[in-house]
Design brief:
The protein is mainly alpha-helical. It has two domains: 131 residues, Winged helix-like DNA-binding domain superfamily/Winged helix DNA-binding domain (Arc Repressor Mutant, subunit A), CATH 1.10.10.10; 71 residues, no CATH class. The chain is built from nine helices and five strands, in the order αααααββαααβββα. The strands form two sheets. Strands 3-4-5 form a three-stranded antiparallel sheet, with no helix packed on it. Strands 1-2 form a two-stranded antiparallel sheet. α3 packs across α6 and α4 packs across α5. It is globular. InterPro entries: HTH_MarR-typ (IPR000835), WH-like_DNA-bd_sf (IPR036388), WH_DNA-bd_sf (IPR036390).
């Protein structure tokens, strides 16, 4: 049998495998918390994820094509989820795009109410993170943000909006944002920046 990061014997002395196994455990916690919130509100986990995303992101990102990439599912899967949410009167279509063939989705007032009681599903994890010393929180965040960027560069993670992949980001001894015109400390790096614009140079390299 080949080596596996999930084999306790193979994890001995292999910190990278232990980290991956640990991340998988945390991913399971997210799924459990999301399922609990979904069942309590008569929704599917994906439907809750879509509602939360729509609530906090600009309209240009709230269309079927982008949502499919965002959550690594097929367009038909997103379309079905949108139909279900519309039937529940939680979202509405917005045809204000210049392309009359496409549409984005917006929250209804009822949808906003649901987001108000579901968007906190990951709070139990945050509560534990807050127990870590601030320097450990910053070190953990720095590692995660770099890992997310590298997974995106390798094509494993489809969508990311971190500073490291943005056209406004510069690295010259220090991290720097040309849009904000300021040095970025580790805690300033964003994972999901509203002003993010992809660095085309990175795509070609």
């Amino acid at each position: 049998m080949s080596k596996s990061v999930f084999n306790p014997e193979d994890q001995i002395g292999d910190v990278a495998s232990k980290i991956v196994a640990g991340l998988e455990r945390i991913a399971e916690v997210f799924k459990v918390l999301l399922w609990d919130k979904a069942k309590a509100n008569g929704l599917s986990p994906l439907q809750i994820q879509l509602l939360i995303f729509i609530a906090y992101h600009k309209t240009a990102l709230c269309n079927v094509s982008h949502l499919a990439k965002e959550f690594n599912v097929t367009k038909p899967t997103v379309s079905d989820a949108i139909k279900a949410l519309m039937k529940k009167e939680l979202i509405a279509k917005d045809f204000s795009s210049a392309d009359s063939r496409s549409y984005s989705v917006l929250l209804t007032e009822k949808g906003k109410e649901i987001v108000g009681i579901t968007a906190n599903f990951a709070n139990p994890i945050k509560e534990q993170v807050l127990l870590l010393p601030s320097e450990e929180q910053e070190a953990l965040f720095k590692t995660l943000s770099q890992l997310i960027y590298k997974l995106n560069r390798n094509g494993i993670l489809t969508v990311q909006r971190t500073c490291y992949g943005c056209k406004f980001y510069e690295k010259d001894n220090v991290d720097y944002c040309r849009l904000l015109e300021k040095e970025l400390y580790a805690k300033d790096i964003r994972l999901d920046c509203p002003e993010f614009e992809v660095n085309q140079t990175n795509l070609l390299s």
